[in-house]
Design goal:
The chain has about 350 residues and is an alpha/beta fold. The protein has a single domain, classed as Luciferase-like domain (TIM Barrel, Alpha-Beta Barrel). It is about 45% helix and about 20% strand. The longest helix is centred in the last third of the chain and has 32 residues. The protein is globular and about 65 Å long. The two termini are about 20 Å apart.
Length: about 350
Amino acid sequence: MRPLRIHWCAPRGDGNTKASEKDLANELNLDGMVDFVQEAEDLGIDSLLMGIGFHLPDPLPLIGALVRETRKVTFILAYRPGLLPPTLFAQVVNTISWMSNKRISLNIVAGISPEEQAYYGDYLLHDDRYQRTDEYLSVLHRFWRGESPVSHEGEHYRFTDAKLGLPYKDGERPRLYLSGASRQAQQCAIDWGDCWLRYGDTPEGIAAASRHVFSSGRDVGIRMHVLARETRAEALAELEAMMVNPDEQHRQNVRDFVKNCDSEAVRTSFRLAEGAAKDWLSPMLWSGAVAYRGGPALCVVGSYREVAQYLIEYKKAGVSEFIFSGWPTRGEMRRFCQHVLPVVRELEAREGQHEETALVI
């Protein structure tokens, strides 16, 4: 069994310290980000997700700066078709591949809200956005296969004899993550991607939702939060303290935004949270922050060993990678890498030995 790949979500400012406070990403501390990504690299984080949204700085220039301050960690660029035409986007990604020695992956996001898409002059609805994403990725793959010139006349893009002088380094292409929970998102990941990336659920829920993706040979990854302490009692006490004096205006703002979302991933996360018994989907999976932070805030909570064991349950269900966050995200990343990840690797090694023994028998 391959080791679980562990990624982290990079904060734009100093990061939120509580699950229930308003978003603190309305400022950019570049020096702080450099320090964060360098520590993530030292801790052995595989990749750092650079998210996209109207409330965030644009990830493209940030990655351009951060790849020159690091040597090993990969950056997962979240981006939406419709913001840049495919020729220019391939050119930008190819350029970063040379600046970083191929340390860039892509998280292609079709979009989650007609309201937000309209901020950028984009008025396509859900299914049409996925049709455009399909067309977009088909063109990108042609560039990365080395086709030249490339002409295309589709429903959303049209260009003639496009040539790119700079290919992706070594004639390769970036790893492609496709986000979403809808049927269209799954099929797009199967047709063009390497990994279907979705918000959390129980291991059983993930296994059931991912059957079609697994049968296609694609990987499945989860975007979620983690809160681990030495004992479960400490973790639960931390959770309780973090929810004291919640920002109810922020919760209402999130509720208002979600009303206009047409994303199946967002809707599914809120349905799960609303149906959870006292905010718990399982003894290990807490949903209380989803109302304040959205789909990624579904959180694995417990002792270091309990969290590690629960992640192995996801692996048994077919999950191969996680993109985590925490509150505060830097402290949780440090704690996870120092105390949880070694237990994950220990359990993986034990599972591997059991498999080898079974094969010999």
